[in-house]
Amino acid sequence: MKAEQLSNLMVIFGGTGDLTHRKLIPALYNLLNEGILPDAFAVVSVGRRNKTSEEYREELKKSVQQYSRFSMEQEKWEVLAQKIHYYPLDFRQGEGYTSLDDYLKKMEKQYGTKGNRMYYLAVAPEYFEVIVDHLHAYEMTDSSEGWKRVVIEKPFGRDLQSARYLNKKITHAFTEQNTYRIDHYLGKEMLQNIMVIRFANAFFEPIWNNKFIDHIQISSSETLGVEERGGYYEKAGVLRDMIQNHMLQLLALTAMEPPVRLDTESIRDEKVKILKGLRKMSVEEIRSNVILGQYGSNGEKKGYRQENRISPTSDTETFMALKVQIENFRWGGVPFYIRTGKRLPKKSTEIIVQFKSIPEILYWKEFENLKPNLLVIRIQPMEGIFMQFNAKKPGTETQIIPVQMDFCQNCEIGSNSPEAYERLLYDVMKGDSTLFTRWDEVEYSWRFIDTIAKAWEREKPLFPNYDAGTWGPKEADELLRKDGRKWWIL
Ligand SMILES: NC(=O)c1ccc[n+]([C@@H]2O[C@H](COP(=O)([O-])OP(=O)(O)OC[C@H]3O[C@@H](n4cnc5c(N)ncnc54)[C@H](OP(=O)(O)O)[C@@H]3O)[C@@H](O)[C@H]2O)c1
Predict the structure, then answer these.
(1) Which of 43, 55, 123 most suits a substitution to test ligand 1, by most atoms within 8 Å of the C-beta?
(2) What is the pTM of this model?
(3) Is residue 23 part of a domain?
(4) Engineering a disulfide at 151: which of 180, 282, 297, 461 sits with its beta carbon 3.0 to 4.6 angstroms away?
(5) Mean pLDDT score, 425-438
C-alpha cells in the first residue's frame, strides 16, 4: 500500500479519557516501535479540560510507560510526542467546530497528511450522535479530498431501536465503508487465528459439525469487579457489555461457514448468516435457558451493589450463562453454551469444543470415566490451543488416561503479541474493515439480544445470587447438568 494512503490525521474525541490513555496512545507507540506508523501522521486530541499540548504529552508519557508492551525509550517517545496536539473544546458546542476544522487543516499542512482523517469517538455513547452531527454540519466528513473515516466505540446502541437510530445518523454523515464499529475482541490475535485454525488445516473442518461435535462452550470470565466504570456498567450490564458484541462475535467466528474468499465482505457475509440463524426463543425458553447473576460480597471483596457509582438496590446483571442454538444444517442439535461474568475465580476467554463420545463398544465398555475429546482455543490471557484425548498409561496393564497437548502461543520466547487496538488502528489507516462489525451484524445481534432483555425486564432473579470469586449462580451449573453436561475449567 502506498504511504500516501496510510498517512492521516487522527482526531480523538475524548483525548483525556481512560481509553485514550490506556489503549489508543500506547497502541500508537507500539505501531511506531513496529516501524509501521506512517511518517505523515499526527494526532489532535479533543477534550473538555484546559491544558497545553506540553502538559498533555507529559500525562500521556506516563500512560505509555505503564501500558505499552514496548518499554519506553525517550528518543522514540519524542518522535511520537511531537506529533500529538491537544485541542480543548466542548464537543456539544457546534460553533467550536469551525475553528477546530481550521486547526485540523493547519495540522494537515504541517504533517502532510493529504486530507485523510480518522475521527475516533472515544467518548460515552450518548455523545456519538452529537459529534457526528456536528462533523457533518460543519462539512468535515467529505471524502473527496482525502478519506474521512469514523471509528465508533462500543456499545453501539442499547437496543435495536437505538442502534438503528444511531446508525441512521452516522450513515447520513459517513458511508458504511468509512464507518468502523469497533469490537476490540476482533483485534485479538487468537480471534483472527480461529479462521486460520479452522480453514487452513485438513483435520478440523471435516469434523466441525453436528456429526462429531457434542456441544461448544464459549466463556469469558473476569476476576475484576466493575472498578471505576460503574456509571457505564449500570446502564449496560453484562448483556450489552459482553454478550451483544464480543460473545456473539466469538460464536459467529466459531460457527460460520468457510467464506468464498478472504475479503472483508465475504467474511462478514458468513458471520451475519450465523447471527441470523440464532434460534428465537419464547419467553419461557429464555427464562430457563438464560441465567442471570449479580455478585455479592464474599466478606473480602465488595458486592456489586457496594461498588462506586452503583445503586444499593441495583438489579443490573454482572453474570450471564445461556444456551443457544443455530438453525442450520451444520449445527442443528448442537447447543452452544455461553458464560461470562465479573468477579469470577479466573480471568480467561476460551472456546471449548467437546466432541461426541466414541461408540459404546471396545474401550468404552471396559473403562469407566473415559474422557471426551476436547479442543480448546484459548483467547486470553493465554493464547493457544489445547487438546485432550485418551491414551494408554505406560505400564504392563492397559489403563487409559486423558492426555493433553498444549500449544501456548504467547509462552514462546520472543512472542510479544500485538494489542488488539494496534491491529485495529492500523486497519483503519489501511482502510480494511474486516475486523470491524458491519451494520447488519449489529442489527441481527440486537434482534437476538432484545428478546432476551425483554423476557427478563419485568422480573429478575433475587440479586445478589453469587458470591464474588465463585462461578456464578448455581442455576448456571444446572443449565448444563440437566443436559448431562458440565462447564469445563481447564
Ligand atoms: N476505557 C476502556 O477501557 C474502554 C473499553 C472499551 C470501550 N470503551 C468505550 O470508549 C469510550 C470512552 O470510554 P472512556 O473510559 O475513555 O471514557 P472516559 O474516561 O469517561 O473519557 C471520556 C472523555 O470524553 C470527554 N468528554 C466528555 N464530555 C465532553 C464534552 N462535552 N466535550 C469534550 N469532551 C468531553 C472527556 O473529557 P474531559 O475529561 O476533559 O471532560 C474524556 O476525554 C466509551 O464509549 C466506552 O464505552 C472504553
Answers:
(1) 123
(2) 0.94
(3) yes
(4) 180
(5) 96
